[in-house]
Amino acid sequence: MNPNPVVAIVGRPNVGKSTLVNRIVGGRKAIVEERPGVTRDRKDFDAEWAGRSFTLVDTGGWLPKAGEGGALDDKVSAQSERAIADADVAILVVDARVGVTSEDDLVADLLRRRSGPTFVAVNKVDHEVHEASIWEFLGLGLGEPMPISALHGRGSADLLDAIVATFPEPEPEDDAPIDEGDKTVAVAIVGRPNVGKSTLFNRLIGEERSVVHDQAGTTRDAIDTVVDTELGPIRFVDTAGMRRKARIDQDTEYYSLVRALKAVDASDVALLVVDSTVGITNQDQRLAERVDAAGCPVVVVLNKWDLLDTAAREDLAYQVETKLRFLGEPPVLRTSALSGQGVHRLLPILATTIHDYRRRVPTREVNLVIRRAQAQHPAPGGARVLYATQGASDPPTFTLFANRELPRTYIRYLENQLRDHLELGSVPVKLRVRKRTD
Ligand code: GDP
Ligand code: GDP
């Protein structure tokens, strides 16, 4: 297995594929490998951009079956088709000076059936004056075309940036601790002392009535607990204090904050436990801010709900809305850890939150949202996002390629649009804006 992402360059003959390949790989030689599928029609190259390695596949001439070619052309097509299917990213190269041809349409058809990201590189845009011609290629239905000049290098950096941004995050180094539990969802239970964290945790263990085992935690004195649930194993991070029966009472605010933040760093989701009888305090707010800043989605647990009367319940709902507004609309769970009431709803909420957090949105969907958002509310001063892609998950991180700087308020607007239309719930969403420089 080749660990590098594979980028396939496709397009009809003469659009400039080889020139683009040369531009990207420089003087590098094709990887000559005697294996089925690698023939003169398909060349693989080692390539690198922005510190990320990938394999560039030149599919050679794309000669659609409908062409007048015969047996050899069929073979080329089959190979191109396979290269397209196998690639992580596809670049369709088209010729700005010729416009859309029926052959381009045929290839585009095939590319639209792919699941991975596809870019349309409109080549031979040697000068800015030719840029207007790229819009015709929107009709290929593969997202916003990117103008390049393979010959002069114009726009190729932007294209590569956009491609590299779609690659998954690099694997951790070999010496990073990886064990079987690596895929296990990690949950931190945080909150001020006495809000009911231990009670809630013990309740969770009790409810599951399944295998519970200890695991060395991420810090020296931490102990994690893995609980097998119907959703698969869940690792509760740093549960040392919560499992011990007789707990030390010098569990100060400061100590618990430091400890909580360490746990959050090692977690996918944080349960922020609040004492409902006290309400949302400053410390709760501060803790929530720190968790949010760490990029960890928050589930708010309003514990000791049993002790509230109706008026207090309404008041608390209002407090969550106002004092924790910066979290977006976090899932809120009302529990009585003591009696177990409401605790069973935790697992489904966790499942949804994790799903949102780890979600990968197809590039086309991202661009659709951005395009519509811009159509509804264009940015001031002619600023425009030309292309957007989700570069990473955990939390969802989007890279926007813009023609110039975007005002903060506008970035916020786009963030909200992405969140709403891609149904990302309340997980933190990161936006990076990159300015084109040519
Ligand atoms: P391929 O058949 O798709 O691999 O196309 P080539 O890379 O062989 O290019 C076909 C022709 O287009 C060659 O004459 C190139 O010099 C020319 N060409 C490629 N890129 C550009 C470009 O950006 N601008 C201009 N003006 N010509 C280009
Ligand atoms: P921690 O310091 O956050 O781990 O809090 P504990 O779990 O030790 O709980 C502190 C106190 O609150 C204990 O006396 C618990 O019995 C009590 N407690 C916890 N959850 C609830 C609840 O849902 N309802 C009520 N009435 N008391 C609770």
Which strand order spans the largest sheet, edge to edge or round the barrel?
A: 8-9-10-7-11-12-13
Distance between the termini: 37 Å
List the helices and strands in order: EHEEHEHEEHEHEEEHHEHEHEHHEEHE
Could you tell me the strand content as a percent range? Answer: 15-25%
Number of strands: 16
Major sheet details: 7 strands, mixed
By DSSP (H or I, 4+ residues per run), the number of helices equals 12
Unreliable segments of 5+ consecutive residues: 32-40, 64-72, 172-182, 245-249
Net shape:
elongated
Average per-residue pLDDT, rounded, comes to 81
Q: Estimate the helix proportion, in percent.
A: 25-40%
SS class: alpha/beta
Rg = 26 Å
General description of the model:
With 438 residues, the chain is an alpha/beta fold. Helices cover 32% and strands 21% of the residues. The strands form three sheets. It has a seven-stranded mixed β-sheet, with helices on both faces. A six-stranded mixed β-sheet has the order 2-3-1-4-5-6, sandwiched between helices. It has a three-stranded mixed β-sheet with strand order 14-15-16. α11 (363-376) crosses α12. The protein starts with 5 loop residues before the first strand and ends with a strand. The relative contact order is 0.09. Residues 32-40, 64-72, 172-182 and 245-249 have low confidence and may be disordered. The structure holds guanosine-5'-diphosphate (GDP) (2 copies). One guanosine-5'-diphosphate binds at residues 11, 13-19, 123-124, 126, 149-151. The site of one guanosine-5'-diphosphate has 14 residues, from α1.
